[in-house]
Amino acid sequence: xxxxxxxxxxxxxxxxxDQESEHDAAVDDDEQPLLxxxxxxxxxxxxxxxxxxxxxxxxxxxxxxxxxxxASPLMAHLxxxxxxxxxxxxxxxxxxxxxxxxxALFLGMxxxxxxxxxxxAPGLYLREKKFAIxxxxxxxxxxxxxxxxxxxxxxxxxxxxFAATIPDDITWMTDINAYLSFVIKIITAFGIxxxxxxxxxxxxxxxxxxxxxxxxxxxxxxxxxxxVGMMLTPPDIISQVLLAIPAWILFELGxxxxxxxxxxxxxxx
Length: 269
What we know:
By secondary structure, the protein is mainly α. It contains ten helices and no strands.
Protein backbone atom coordinates (compact mmCIF):
# COMPACT_ATOMS: atom_id res chain seq x y z
CA UNK A 1 0.00 0.00 0.00
CA UNK A 2 1.28 3.44 -0.93
CA UNK A 3 2.09 5.50 2.11
CA UNK A 4 0.62 8.95 2.32
CA UNK A 5 2.91 11.84 3.05
CA UNK A 6 1.43 14.47 5.29
CA UNK A 7 3.35 17.71 5.40
CA UNK A 8 3.81 19.47 8.65
CA UNK A 9 1.35 22.37 8.79
CA UNK A 10 3.99 24.47 10.46
CA UNK A 11 6.41 23.90 7.56
CA UNK A 12 4.32 23.41 4.41
CA UNK A 13 7.40 23.36 2.18
CA UNK A 14 9.11 20.68 4.28
CA UNK A 15 11.92 23.12 5.12
CA UNK A 16 12.68 23.72 8.76
CA UNK A 17 13.64 27.28 9.69
CA ASP A 18 17.35 26.49 9.84
CA GLN A 19 17.37 25.19 6.25
CA GLU A 20 15.44 28.21 5.00
CA SER A 21 17.88 30.58 6.68
CA GLU A 22 20.81 28.73 5.10
CA HIS A 23 19.13 28.99 1.69
CA ASP A 24 18.50 32.72 2.12
CA ALA A 25 22.09 33.24 3.23
CA ALA A 26 23.35 31.48 0.10
CA VAL A 27 21.18 33.72 -2.08
CA ASP A 28 22.47 36.80 -0.27
CA ASP A 29 26.06 35.62 -0.79
CA ASP A 30 25.38 35.29 -4.53
CA GLU A 31 23.85 38.75 -4.72
CA GLN A 32 26.59 40.51 -2.76
CA PRO A 33 29.35 40.16 -5.41
CA LEU A 34 27.05 41.50 -8.13
CA LEU A 35 26.05 44.44 -5.95
CA UNK A 36 29.66 45.23 -5.07
CA UNK A 37 30.64 45.08 -8.77
CA UNK A 38 27.84 47.49 -9.66
CA UNK A 39 28.93 49.89 -6.93
CA UNK A 40 32.53 49.69 -8.12
CA UNK A 41 31.47 50.24 -11.74
CA UNK A 42 29.43 53.29 -10.73
CA UNK A 43 32.42 54.71 -8.87
CA UNK A 44 34.74 54.25 -11.87
CA UNK A 45 32.24 55.82 -14.28
CA UNK A 46 31.77 58.84 -12.03
CA UNK A 47 35.53 59.30 -11.73
CA UNK A 48 35.94 59.12 -15.50
CA UNK A 49 33.16 61.66 -16.07
CA UNK A 50 34.66 63.93 -13.42
CA UNK A 51 38.06 63.81 -15.13
CA UNK A 52 36.49 64.76 -18.47
CA UNK A 53 34.56 67.60 -16.81
CA UNK A 54 37.72 68.92 -15.13
CA UNK A 55 39.50 68.88 -18.48
CA UNK A 56 36.57 70.59 -20.19
CA UNK A 57 36.45 73.63 -17.87
CA UNK A 58 39.86 75.10 -18.80
CA UNK A 59 39.47 74.10 -22.44
CA UNK A 60 36.19 76.02 -22.62
CA UNK A 61 38.07 79.19 -21.70
CA UNK A 62 40.20 78.71 -24.82
CA UNK A 63 37.41 77.43 -27.08
CA UNK A 64 38.00 80.06 -29.76
CA UNK A 65 41.75 79.37 -29.79
CA UNK A 66 41.03 75.64 -30.14
CA UNK A 67 38.69 76.41 -33.02
CA UNK A 68 41.36 78.44 -34.83
CA UNK A 69 43.91 75.69 -34.28
CA UNK A 70 41.57 72.98 -35.56
CA ALA A 71 40.55 75.13 -38.53
CA SER A 72 44.11 76.09 -39.54
CA PRO A 73 44.70 73.09 -41.89
CA LEU A 74 41.65 74.09 -43.93
CA MET A 75 42.20 77.85 -43.71
CA ALA A 76 45.68 77.41 -45.16
CA HIS A 77 44.16 76.15 -48.43
CA LEU A 78 41.16 78.47 -48.72
CA UNK A 79 41.38 81.40 -51.16
CA UNK A 80 42.85 84.58 -49.73
CA UNK A 81 40.31 86.44 -47.63
CA UNK A 82 37.93 83.47 -47.47
CA UNK A 83 36.44 82.36 -44.17
CA UNK A 84 34.22 79.60 -42.92
CA UNK A 85 30.52 80.26 -42.46
CA UNK A 86 27.81 79.40 -39.93
CA UNK A 87 24.48 78.32 -41.40
CA UNK A 88 22.75 77.87 -38.04
CA UNK A 89 21.93 80.53 -35.46
CA UNK A 90 23.78 78.89 -32.56
CA UNK A 91 26.69 77.44 -34.54
CA UNK A 92 29.17 80.25 -33.71
CA UNK A 93 28.77 79.37 -30.02
CA UNK A 94 28.05 75.64 -30.10
CA UNK A 95 30.85 74.64 -32.47
CA UNK A 96 33.74 75.93 -30.30
CA UNK A 97 31.85 74.47 -27.32
CA UNK A 98 31.73 71.06 -29.02
CA UNK A 99 35.42 71.29 -29.94
CA UNK A 100 36.28 71.90 -26.29
CA UNK A 101 34.11 68.94 -25.26
CA UNK A 102 35.79 66.61 -27.75
CA UNK A 103 39.17 67.92 -26.67
CA ALA A 104 38.34 67.13 -23.05
CA LEU A 105 37.28 63.63 -24.04
CA PHE A 106 40.52 63.00 -25.93
CA LEU A 107 42.67 64.47 -23.15
CA GLY A 108 40.84 62.48 -20.50
CA MET A 109 41.11 59.21 -22.40
CA UNK A 110 44.19 57.95 -20.48
CA UNK A 111 42.39 58.41 -17.16
CA UNK A 112 39.22 56.81 -18.54
CA UNK A 113 41.22 53.78 -19.67
CA UNK A 114 42.91 53.66 -16.27
CA UNK A 115 39.50 53.48 -14.60
CA UNK A 116 38.51 50.64 -16.92
CA UNK A 117 41.74 48.87 -16.01
CA UNK A 118 41.14 49.40 -12.28
CA UNK A 119 37.69 47.82 -12.64
CA UNK A 120 38.74 44.69 -14.55
CA ALA A 121 42.20 44.15 -12.99
CA PRO A 122 41.00 42.23 -9.89
CA GLY A 123 39.51 39.55 -12.15
CA LEU A 124 42.64 38.98 -14.22
CA TYR A 125 45.28 36.29 -13.79
CA LEU A 126 48.88 37.25 -13.06
CA ARG A 127 49.98 36.49 -16.64
CA GLU A 128 47.19 38.68 -17.98
CA LYS A 129 48.12 41.53 -15.65
CA LYS A 130 51.71 41.32 -16.84
CA PHE A 131 50.64 42.25 -20.38
CA ALA A 132 47.75 44.53 -19.45
CA ILE A 133 49.74 47.60 -18.38
CA UNK A 134 52.04 47.65 -21.47
CA UNK A 135 49.02 47.12 -23.73
CA UNK A 136 47.08 49.88 -21.98
CA UNK A 137 49.93 52.38 -22.31
CA UNK A 138 50.60 51.35 -25.91
CA UNK A 139 46.94 51.72 -26.85
CA UNK A 140 46.86 55.29 -25.52
CA UNK A 141 50.10 56.22 -27.30
CA UNK A 142 48.94 54.68 -30.59
CA UNK A 143 45.58 56.44 -30.42
CA UNK A 144 47.30 59.79 -29.95
CA UNK A 145 49.73 58.98 -32.77
CA UNK A 146 46.75 58.34 -35.02
CA UNK A 147 45.31 61.74 -34.12
CA UNK A 148 48.65 63.46 -34.78
CA UNK A 149 49.03 61.65 -38.10
CA UNK A 150 45.55 62.77 -39.16
CA UNK A 151 46.12 66.41 -38.21
CA UNK A 152 49.64 66.95 -39.55
CA UNK A 153 49.71 64.55 -42.51
CA UNK A 154 46.20 63.70 -43.68
CA UNK A 155 44.46 67.06 -43.35
CA UNK A 156 47.02 69.12 -45.32
CA UNK A 157 47.09 66.56 -48.16
CA UNK A 158 43.31 66.16 -48.29
CA UNK A 159 42.58 69.89 -48.22
CA UNK A 160 45.25 70.56 -50.81
CA UNK A 161 43.61 67.95 -53.04
CA PHE A 162 40.18 69.51 -52.49
CA ALA A 163 41.48 73.01 -53.25
CA ALA A 164 43.18 71.84 -56.45
CA THR A 165 40.05 70.16 -57.81
CA ILE A 166 37.50 72.93 -57.18
CA PRO A 167 36.06 74.37 -60.43
CA ASP A 168 36.85 78.02 -61.06
CA ASP A 169 33.22 79.10 -60.90
CA ILE A 170 32.63 77.62 -57.41
CA THR A 171 33.41 79.41 -54.15
CA TRP A 172 34.62 77.10 -51.38
CA MET A 173 32.64 78.11 -48.27
CA THR A 174 32.66 75.52 -45.49
CA ASP A 175 30.16 75.45 -42.62
CA ILE A 176 31.93 75.31 -39.25
CA ASN A 177 29.62 72.62 -37.89
CA ALA A 178 30.13 70.41 -40.95
CA TYR A 179 33.87 70.95 -40.69
CA LEU A 180 33.86 69.88 -37.03
CA SER A 181 32.02 66.67 -37.92
CA PHE A 182 34.54 66.01 -40.69
CA VAL A 183 37.52 66.58 -38.37
CA ILE A 184 36.16 64.42 -35.54
CA LYS A 185 35.30 61.61 -37.95
CA ILE A 186 38.79 61.57 -39.49
CA ILE A 187 40.67 61.92 -36.20
CA THR A 188 38.63 59.18 -34.53
CA ALA A 189 38.99 56.87 -37.53
CA PHE A 190 42.78 57.19 -37.54
CA GLY A 191 42.95 56.83 -33.77
CA ILE A 192 41.02 53.54 -33.98
CA UNK A 193 43.01 52.26 -36.96
CA UNK A 194 46.26 52.84 -35.08
CA UNK A 195 45.00 50.34 -32.48
CA UNK A 196 45.38 47.46 -34.96
CA UNK A 197 48.66 46.18 -33.41
CA UNK A 198 47.00 46.06 -29.98
CA UNK A 199 43.98 44.22 -31.38
CA UNK A 200 46.27 41.69 -33.08
CA UNK A 201 48.16 41.03 -29.86
CA UNK A 202 44.93 40.60 -27.90
CA UNK A 203 43.70 38.02 -30.41
CA UNK A 204 46.91 36.03 -29.95
CA UNK A 205 46.96 36.42 -26.16
CA UNK A 206 43.36 35.22 -25.97
CA UNK A 207 44.31 32.09 -27.88
CA UNK A 208 41.90 32.85 -30.72
CA UNK A 209 44.61 32.63 -33.37
CA UNK A 210 48.37 32.45 -33.93
CA UNK A 211 50.77 34.86 -35.68
CA UNK A 212 51.18 32.44 -38.60
CA UNK A 213 47.44 31.98 -38.95
CA UNK A 214 46.89 35.74 -38.94
CA UNK A 215 49.68 36.27 -41.48
CA UNK A 216 48.04 33.79 -43.85
CA UNK A 217 45.00 36.08 -43.97
CA UNK A 218 47.12 38.98 -45.27
CA UNK A 219 45.40 39.26 -48.72
CA UNK A 220 41.98 39.54 -47.10
CA UNK A 221 43.26 42.06 -44.57
CA UNK A 222 44.69 44.29 -47.31
CA UNK A 223 41.35 44.34 -49.10
CA UNK A 224 39.65 44.99 -45.77
CA UNK A 225 41.95 47.94 -45.07
CA UNK A 226 40.87 49.67 -48.27
CA UNK A 227 37.24 48.82 -47.58
CA VAL A 228 37.46 50.32 -44.09
CA GLY A 229 39.21 53.35 -45.56
CA MET A 230 36.32 53.77 -47.96
CA MET A 231 33.74 53.51 -45.16
CA LEU A 232 35.41 55.73 -42.56
CA THR A 233 36.70 58.57 -44.73
CA PRO A 234 35.13 61.05 -47.15
CA PRO A 235 34.63 59.86 -50.74
CA ASP A 236 38.03 60.92 -52.02
CA ILE A 237 40.88 58.61 -52.97
CA ILE A 238 43.51 60.56 -51.03
CA SER A 239 42.04 60.11 -47.55
CA GLN A 240 41.07 56.50 -48.31
CA VAL A 241 44.61 55.59 -49.32
CA LEU A 242 46.09 57.54 -46.40
CA LEU A 243 43.99 55.41 -44.05
CA ALA A 244 44.37 52.06 -45.82
CA ILE A 245 48.17 52.06 -46.18
CA PRO A 246 48.92 52.86 -42.50
CA ALA A 247 46.33 50.24 -41.52
CA TRP A 248 48.20 47.64 -43.59
CA ILE A 249 51.56 48.67 -42.10
CA LEU A 250 50.12 48.53 -38.59
CA PHE A 251 48.73 45.07 -39.32
CA GLU A 252 52.24 43.89 -40.20
CA LEU A 253 53.54 45.55 -37.03
CA GLY A 254 50.86 43.76 -35.04
CA UNK A 255 52.03 40.39 -36.39
CA UNK A 256 55.61 41.15 -35.35
CA UNK A 257 54.51 42.26 -31.88
CA UNK A 258 52.26 39.23 -31.43
CA UNK A 259 55.25 36.95 -32.03
CA UNK A 260 56.86 38.44 -28.92
CA UNK A 261 54.01 37.29 -26.68
CA UNK A 262 53.20 34.01 -28.41
CA UNK A 263 54.66 30.79 -27.04
CA UNK A 264 56.00 28.60 -29.89
CA UNK A 265 55.01 25.38 -28.12
CA UNK A 266 51.36 26.52 -28.25
CA UNK A 267 51.35 27.00 -32.01
CA UNK A 268 49.34 24.59 -34.05
CA UNK A 269 51.32 22.24 -36.21
